[in-house]
From TrEMBL, chain A:
Name of protein: ABC transporter ATP-binding protein
GO MF terms, alphabetically ordered: ATP binding; ATP hydrolysis activity; branched-chain amino acid transmembrane transporter activity
InterPro entries for this protein: AAA+_ATPase, ABC_transporter-like_ATP-bd, ABC_transporter-like_CS, BCAA_Transport_ATP-bd_LivF, P-loop_NTPase
Domain of life: Bacteria
Gene Ontology biological-process annotations: L-amino acid transport
UniProtKB/TrEMBL annotation, chain B:
Residues annotated as transmembrane: 13-37, 142-162, 191-213, 225-252, 259-279
Signal peptide: none
MF-aspect GO terms: transmembrane transporter activity
Top-level lineage group: Bacteria
Cellular component, GO, one term: plasma membrane
Name of this protein: Branched-chain amino acid ABC transporter permease
Pfam family, one: BPD_transp_2
GO BP annotations, alphabetical order: amino acid transport
Subcellular location: Cell membrane
Keywords: Amino-acid transport, Cell membrane, Membrane, Transmembrane, Transmembrane helix, Transport
UniProt topology in membrane: Multi-pass membrane protein
Length: 237, 288
């Protein structure tokens, strides 16, 4: 029986008067790799922010490891082993690369310390060369590596990556995909939000598609990959 | 001005500047990190001085008064943050100014009720009461040197805390992106409370240290508040090191202004501010 790490039930979220999420059901299991897709403005980031406690949903429930935590303080939700790498990366430019990593360090929920400063640098050797640089002096790809590395320093059981390859050169994006796959193999569950549906469906077990704040597909990534009509309808440009 | 007079004035300027830094550092941190304009910050200096006076009268020992006063100031700061300031972060500056101006009135009234409106003095503690003779007629009080030394130790400690500790990293990160800090599992509200309490304690300690040399009087907080805002603006909002440089500039400008241009003494500080802002509109050091 797989354990549900994070779950949303009939979530309705508003920004001001605009109704963004229309009763979304969502869950991710321990160790699972999940793709969250949909065109711009369909509510992917809002769903994540609602589950992280960064926006308060108006109706519905968020459960973390089975406990109701709807609208709980974000740091408490994160402390349940959930690492969030937001779109736009969220680097602290006024901290050095080393400080960006060290400030986040903590053991995981079960006390695991699999991800140390040294292991993060082994995974991202480029960061090791730039430890004393300010976070703002890094290239886009390096910044993305830094936010992923920083999220790993919290020894999470679930990592949520919002548009991790956005705006990166193809070669660098490929490197990021390789790392994301490696993270998944290490047993960390991943929620991957990305426009590259071919890449997402090839590295995830399950895919969820949002259209106008509603789930229109929730199923096997392989099934979705082989259903070009569905992809065209909901994700095509 | 002969050499010894110059030396004395320089030491006075240094001591005054460093003391102002203790007050201004908390003001600039709270302003830069939490975005709060705290008009009541000068009151913490006043409260510190009156605490030193009251506790010295009670215990008969200035050092015991300081040792008791620091934890009291920290607790007071933490309580004030939890009860009032925590509700101000998402509000605009007008509401912040209204609340903190109201606090000045409340603090002054409570001070008046508890300790009256008289001017008080605290004797310089005996072991620092001596003066170091410089020449036949001039000497320099040891206690002022002690104040400077304590302030330098605290400035170094503050540097270490902000630049070298994880708490300092979190404080700096929190000034940049509050949501991201929380997403990393860090309780930003606790960080804010710590910073606020620290700022209150530093200002109160400045008041305690100053009490034996400047006397303890109603309204002493507002004098310090205005000059501290000048320092925060000159130094660059949110920059602790900018505040240190600015506090020393103001210390020297004010002290030597009073000696060399006594007719314009009250103006010098603001002239310095105008010149610095013409040269660097965002202050000497930008936030960082």
């Amino acid at each position: 029986m797989s354990e549900v790490l994070l779950e949303a039930k009939q979530l309705h979220t508003y920004y001001g008067s605009s109704h963004i999420l229309h009763g979304v059901d969502f869950h991710i299991n321990k160790g699972e790799a999940l793709g969250l897709m949909g065109r711009n403005g369909m509510g992917k980031t809002t769903l994540i922010r609602s589950m992280m406690g960064l926006v308060k949903p108006r109706h519905g429930e968020v459960k973390v490891r089975g406990d109701a935590m709807t609208g709980a303080p974000t740091h408490r939700i994160a402390r349940q082993g959930i690492a969030y790498v937001p779109e736009g990366r969220g680097i602290f430019p006024n901290l050095s690369v080393k400080e960006n990593l060290l400030m986040a360090a903590r053991p995981g929920v079960d006390g695991q310390r699999n991800w140390t400063f040294e292991r993060v640098l082994e995974t991202f050797p480029r960061l090791g060369e730039r430890l004393t640089n300010g976070g703002g002096q890094l290239s886009g790809g390096e910044q993305q590596m830094l936010t992923i590395g920083r999220a790993l320093m919290t020894n999470p059981d679930l990592m949520i990556l919002d548009e991790a390859t956005e705006g990166l050169a193809p070669l660098i994006a490929r490197e990021i995909w390789r790392i994301v796959r490696e993270i998944g193999k290490s047993g960390i569950a991943t929620v991957i939000v990305d426009k590259n549906h071919a890449a997402v469906t090839s590295i995830t077990h399950r895919s969820v598609i949002l259209v106008k704040g509603q789930v229109v597909f929730d199923g096997d990534s392989e099934v979705l990959r082989n259903n070009q009509a569905l992809i065209q309808q909901h994700l095509g440009v | 001005m002969d050499f010894y007079s110059f030396l004395i004035q320089s030491l006075n300027a240094l001591q005054y500047g460093l003391l102002l830094f203790l007050v201004a550092s908390g003001l600039t941190l709270v302003f830069g990190i939490m975005g709060i304009i705290n008009l009541a910050h000068g009151s913490f200096y006043m409260i510190g001085a009156y605490l030193a006076f009251a506790l010295t009268s009670l215990t008969g020992n200035f050092f015991v008064a300081i040792l008791l006063g620091i934890p009291l100031a920290l607790a007071f700061g933490a309580a004030l943050e939890a009860l009032l300031f925590a509700h101000l972060y998402k509000r605009d500056h007008l509401e912040q100014v209204l609340l903190t101006y109201g606090l000045i009135l409340i603090f002054e009234e409570v001070r008046s009720l508890l300790l009256g409106d008289d001017v008080h003095g605290i004797p310089v503690p005996e072991i620092f009461a001596a003066s170091i003779p410089l020449n036949d007629t001039l000497s320099y009080p040891v206690y002022r040197l002690v104040i400077s030394a304590v302030c330098i130790v605290l400035a170094v400690g503050l540097y270490w805390l902000i630049q070298r500790t994880r708490l300092g990293m979190m404080i700096r990160a929190g000034s940049h992106d509050r949501d991201m800090v929380q997403s990393l599992g860090i309780d930003i509200n606790r960080i804010y409370r710590t910073v606020f309490a620290l700022g209150v304690a530093l200002a109160a300690l400045a008041g305690m240290l100053a009490a034996p040399i400047s006397s303890v009087f109603p309204g002493m907080g507002s004098q310090v508040l205005i000059i501290s805002f000048v320092i925060v603006v000159i130094g660059g909002i949110g920059s602790v090191w900018g505040a240190l440089i600015a506090a020393l500039i103001i210390g020297f400008a004010d002290t030597f202004g009073k000696v060399l241009l006594p007719d314009f003494a009250g103006l010098i500080v603001y002239l310095v501010m105008a010149v610095v802002l013409l040269w660097r509109p965002e202050g000497i050091l930008k936030k960082g």
